[in-house]
Each structure stands twice: as C-alpha cells, then as structure tokens.
Amino acid sequence: MPKVSVLMPIYKTNRDYLKESIKSILDQSFKDFEFLIIDDCPIDTREDVVLSFNDSRIIYEKNTENLGISATRNKLIEKAKGEYLAIFDHDDISLPNRLEKQVSYLDLNPNVGVLGCEVQYFGKDNRLIKNPSCDHDIKLALMSYCAVIHPGSMVRRTLLIDNNIRYKEQYSPAEDYALWCDLIPYTRFYNMPEVLLNYRVHKANTSKVQQEKLKNSATALHAFNRVVNPELFYEFKERCEYTFKYRLFGCLEFLKVIKTRDKKDYLLFGLIRLLSIKLSTK
Questions:
Q1: Which residues, including other chains, have CB under 8 Å from residue 190's CB and lie 6 or more apart?
Q2: Which of 145, 205, 211, 257 is spaced 20 to 30 Å from 173 by Cα?
Q3: pTM score, whole prediction
Q4: How confident is the model at residue 14 (pLDDT cuts 50, 70, 90)?
C-alpha cells in the first residue's frame, strides 16, 4: 500500500507542460507513492505523453466520456490507496522535496488534515503567494477567499472518506474552495511557510470567462459560509473595517479590497488574492 497517492486530472493539456508536471512528480525525493492520472478528454487524449515515461508508479485511465473536473477529481479519490492524497494539476511543477516535506509534517501532526504551502507563480505572473499559516486564521480567511492553494495541498484520505466529503460540481471551477469550506468543521488546517509548488499562469487559467465563473462560485460560497459556518463568518465580518468593490463598466466586479485591523487584502474577482499589505498597529 503506497504512503501517498498523487492525484492529477488532465484535459487537453499542453504536451510540454504535461511532461514537465509528470517529471516533477517522478523526480521527488520521496519515493513511496502511486501517481494516478485520469484523462477527461476521450477524443483527444494525452496517453502518448503519459505512457512515454514507462514508470510503474503511474496508473493512467481515460474516461469514456467527459465527466468534468469535479467528477474526475472524485473518481481519483475513490481509486486512491494512499494514506495521504497529494493534489496536483496538469500544468504545475512540484519542487523535488514537496512530498517528503508534507508527509513528514502530517506524520508529526495527526490533528492536521489539510496541509498547504507557499506557491511561486511563473509564466504570465511571477508573484510569491503566501496565505495564513495557522488553523484559525486560515478558516477565517476562507470566509473571503481560497486560503489554501489547491494543487500544492496534501489531505488525509480518511478525512474525505469517513465524512463522505467530495468535490461539488456546482461550484466548479472553485470546487477546491468549496471542498475546504466543507472540511472546516472536521479538521485543522496548516499552510507550510515555504514554497513547494511552482504554479504556471497562462491564458487558459486567466481568461475572462474563467474568471467570471470563479467570481460567481465565490459569491455562492460566501453565502454558503454565512449559513454553514456562521460563527467564523461573522467573526470575519467583525474584523473587517471596510470592503471596497471596483467594477468594470459598472457591472463586473474585478477587484475587492478588504481592510481588517492589521492588514489590507486585494482580491481579484473577489476570490484570488493578489496582494496583502500588513498595517501598523501602533
């Protein structure tokens, strides 16, 4: 039984990006893992790229029909055998010690069920993405934005199986944000204060259509948190001194500024944190 299951859905992925992503997992310093890859485009597969690596840890499967990202992620969960699930996307790069670092942390901290990390953007953007590290701060931040970078995360498999929690199609493409919100009552969160993932930024994940979908999903999740996690939601609201929303052409919200007692966050489309500025408390 492998210690870790690396889960990667693919869909019409750029072949060069996919090769780099797969190689970054196979080159990990930690070796006890299975690498589950499900191709969600049966008419335009990347089977040739995946099988060119000829590595027994790779388990490749093609969906017979397009299921969508959430259903494919759930299928990966069902097939996984590892104690820990390493979430990974088809165009990013895991640093060589990612799995080793995350496994070591979870082994030493059995009360933590969701583990994230800092992320370095590359491509069309080169920002360093840092999120709150401790459990309560992460959960408060989740009332406003996705405070755990999904493709750099590791989750205990039993946390999902025992509580029957899965990705929800209705929140795609923010299905990761919805998953974290669902898990708030069941476990502790932690973000490791070091970069373990390089996140590729390109036109496919920054398109206007994609960003509009993310914004709509975020709005729905804010309403969800108000009902399901009311104590956290209203604690977050009490900490907010003000919120500004900037709109394009008077209708499309493209920037939200949230000021709390000690910082100011700038969120693209109300979901993706662009910048966080610490404020003097003197």
A1: 105, 109, 112, 114, 115, 116, 133, 134, 135, 138
A2: 257
A3: 0.83
A4: very high
Which tokens in the block code for residue 51?
A: 């099988």
For the chain, the first-to-last Cα distance in angstroms comes to: 54
How far does CA 136 lie from the centroid of its chain? 18
Question: Per CATH, the architecture of 4-202 is what?
Answer: Alpha-Beta Complex (3.90)
Provide the residue ranges of all domains of the chain, joining segments of one domain with +. Answer: 4-202, 211-278
Tokens 């108000």 label which residue?
A: 226
Helix and strand numbers (H, E) in the chain are: 9, 13
Residues whose CB is less than 8 angstroms from the CB of residue 110 and which lie 6 or more positions away in sequence, other chains included = none
Give tens-digit pLDDT for 131-153.
999 999 999 999 888 999 999 99
Tokens of 75: 């299928």
Cis-peptide, bond into residue 173, ω within 30° of zero? yes
